[in-house]
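Handout, section B. The chain below has 291 residues.
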Amino acid sequence: MSLRLWRLAREATHDPAFGLKVASHLKPTSFHALSYGISASSSLKEAFERAQRYCHVGSDAVDYEFSRCGSEYHFIIEPTADLGDEPIDALVGSYLRMCRSLIGRDYSPLRIEFRRSAPSRLDDFLSLLRAPMFFDMPRTRLVFDRESIERPLDSGNPELARHNDVIALQYLTQLERDNIELRVREVLTQRLAYGEPSQEDVAEILNMSARTLQRKLGDGGTTYKEILDDTRHALALQYLSAGMHSVSDVTYLLGFSAGSCFTRAFRRWTGQSPSDWRAGLGLRPTAGTPA
């Protein structure tokens, strides 16, 4: 919806909660692969991480920050342009609806902080959000308790989420062809199962020299090694959560030369071995698949 249409809708309805009510009209398929990936997430934590990672699939007018702060998790909605109040209200409402669809309709965050001023009427805000609200704050922020955010979801389907991640990443890469980091991640996601590709290999696939790739990544504040490590980390958690692959299989799928290399990397990421981490989720490999 364009900013002009938002303004006209506000003027026509005279409803200060118009933005919040728009959220009720967003469907699970509104953002295609991203929506399916979020719905298949294994926890609200994973859902918000996925929303942050692929947020520009929906719009590049907003960025998200999701992080743990002690016993809380904070989800910050940060517009990159002056959008007005209603579009941000709609995002607050849509992400709260996402939480309730995954964890239960009675769920509410610890508090919601709005950058906007308080609306002229609060009744709809109170009935729709059902959470403590604060206005005229520095940023728009949803604050959640750690237990709810980290709780495993019965609806989680890591394999389905991973497949939709690939589609979302491909789509996002098309939208942001100049975002070299996303393009490198896409190549790595597709190629790691065939062995660890070198920076030269990836540069060739992207039709540029290794030196040009290194320079472009440096301009973006990252390196090939950092992207490789982060991509492996994300894929490792997805593969192990799915329970369909042995640790040996995951070692192969991530392009590690030996199981000891994978275990060492996984300990650096999580402080645990792959088997211990998966056991902590209460998961077991699919019958017939060794741990």
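Note. The chain has two domains: 3-150, 177-280. Compare this with the example in section A.
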